[in-house]
Amino acid sequence: MAGRLNKPAKDEILFVALGGCGEIGMNLYAYGHNNQWLVVDCGVAFGDLSTPGMDVLVPDVSALVEGGGSIVGMVITHAHEDHIGAIPHLIDELDCPVYATPFGASMIERKIDSYGGSEPELIRVKPGGTAKIGVFEVEFVSVTHSIPEACALSIVTPAGRMIHTGDWKIDPDPQLGMMFDSDRLAALGREGVLGLVCDSTNALEEGHSGSEGDVYPGLLEIVQNASGRVAVTCFATNVARVATVAKVAQATGRRLALVGRSLHRLYEVSKDNGYLDSFPDVVPEDAVGRLPREEVLMLVTGTQGEPRAALSKLSRNEHQHVTLNAGDTVIYSSREIPGNETDINRVRNHLAGLGVEVLADGRDGLNVHVTGHPMRDELTQMYQWTQPQVALAVHGETRHQLENAKLALTCQVGQALAPGDGDVIRLKQGQEAEVISRIDVDVLGLDGKRLVALESEVVRLRKRMMHNGAINVAVAINDRGTIVSDPILTSAGVFESPEEDDIEDEAADWAWDAIDRMNKNDRKSDDAVETAVFKSLRKFCRDTIGKKPLVTVSVLRV
Questions:
Q1: Which residues contact 438 (CB under 8 A, 6 or more apart)?
Q2: How far is Cα 97 from Cα 88, in angstroms, rounded to an integer?
Q3: Helix (H, G, I), strand (E, B) or coil at 71
Q4: Checking DSSP bridges between strand 230-233 and strand 329-332, what pairing results, if any?
Q5: What angle in degrees, to the nearest 10, is found between the helix axes of 182-191 and 376-386?
Q6: DSSP run (H or E) holding 346
Q7: Can you name the CATH fold of 212-365?
Q8: What top-level class would CATH report for the domain 457-557?
Q9: In degrees rounded to 5, what are phi and psi of residue 64?
Q10: Measuring CA to CA, which of 54, 125, 514, 532 is 20 to 30 A from 46?
Q11: 463/417: higher pLDDT
Q12: What are the boundaries of each domain within the chain?
């Protein structure tokens, strides 16, 4: 069923995820009605060893841009990277105004300043406010999450109301920002909800996610009992956690330092938008070393083991200003995102090698983190408040989505689906929702300043070089088909020293022999020469080292 994106009709709402289904991150969704499309969120995911040279991944929006109907706007639920990080890279292609809360808009502006590129028309809407965007009436309903001004969206068209939850949890004591507006969600449920598009991240977890207010006592106890420097690592955009750590610093008489650029950016945006007003004075990074170790509490980036983040540099003793030594303590006030375990453990092992005590949430009864996403009790409550006709489980791996959809059916929701990226779902009053088509959805990697498809030849060759190395051989042949000099061969990541020079010389001899066996007429063809040398060198490498490196042949005509 892969094909073009359908033009949405007047009597229906179309929903399609271009990212955010079957994965954690890269959230980008679109709602269609009456020949118009509304985009919700525009986020990134992060690369790994399977995406060499590409740390940031973004959805391919070409099917939406080239499909039926016009894109009238983009609405942002909250300012996390996996919901706004792709805006600088995709806004030119999407070419639409962006609607966000004041805090979210400030974070978007900073991100565009960092990456460069075009500035979109940015329209600020306060939590609780509304915006008319083409045929869509959008209301920003306050929910609680780990960042200020997170909102669920009520999206109304003549064909019905959709509620898009964004990232959320029910936090009775959020420490920062507005309270969860359950009354408004329940009122919308009574008015009628055609579909609820809901966060599935913690759908496998029983119970309640807990409150940010519950984190303070656990952090306080650890810091009070620590003797050296203490570093707390958390997600850089978790403003409530940053505020909680600041309270701990004040209660224990320690000086607070922010280590990592993204924390400084978050601090500045928060202050500009009226948050963190009671925040203590921050010690500059380059002044930390002049303070007694027992007087320092640091907030550091790098909770997921990111190689260039502050905590990774500290674990390798490579930070420009700050060090961690034996007797110091690092507290992981965060959760492990699936897929990051290897990187996280690498950093923890480096820290242990320095003699640093490493403490993490959930170990030995420690309570130093709460998730920002709803567990099953909260999901049940959301379905009871909103009473949707259809539940669409998004934002999670497939197993999370399927479990969320199963839970919805136990909450008297009439129909529940777990869409994949590219599934185009039609919702109509009085009818069952159905997948009417599937569009091909690619993932693009940020390769320097350009976006490259992960299925492209560039990435395929880069992976081959990464796993098998590369060989290049240059051969000089005159117009009569005579070899005029010895082939010049260079390799990278193929042969091991100290035998490397000898093996490269032998490989070059194989290249010479391959050409020498050709008749002179065949040598006049560059393609024929390249094919002969390529096959010969691949056989040499297979027989000699059992590998198939990337082989390139350059024919020089002299």
A1: 1, 2, 3, 420, 422, 423, 424
A2: 13
A3: strand
A4: parallel
A5: 50
A6: helix 341-353
A7: Rossmann fold (3.40.50)
A8: alpha beta
A9: -75, -45
A10: 125
A11: 417
A12: 13-207+372-447, 212-365, 457-557
Q: Model pTM?
A: 0.87
Q: Give the start-end residues of each E strand in 221-291.
A: 230-233, 255-259, 282-283
Calculate ∠ Cα 496-501-506, nearest 5°: 100
Distance separating the N- and C-terminal Cα atoms of the chain: 54
**Which residue stretches of 8-99 are H helix?**
62-66, 81-84, 87-94
Residue-level length of the chain: 558
Residues 6+ apart with CB under 8 A from 110: 265, 268, 269
CB 48 within 8 A of CB 117: no
* Nearest of 411, 31, 382, 431 to residue 198 by alpha carbon: 382
Strand ranges of the sheet holding 423-427, from the earlier edge strand across to the other edge: 122-124, 98-100, 70-75, 36-40, 28-33, 13-19, 423-427, 434-438
Listed in sequence order, the DSSP H helices in 23-149 are: 62-66, 81-84, 87-94, 102-115
The whole-angstrom separation of Cα 138 and Cα 144 is 19
Give the confidence band of 3 by pLDDT, cuts at 50, 70, 90.
low
Whether the per-residue pLDDT at 2 is higher than 60: the answer is no
Largest CA distance in the chain: 86
Nearest residue to 395 (alpha-carbon basis) of 105, 201, 544, 210? 201
Q: Please state, in angstroms and rounded to a whole number, the distance separating the CA atoms of residues 526 and 475.
A: 10
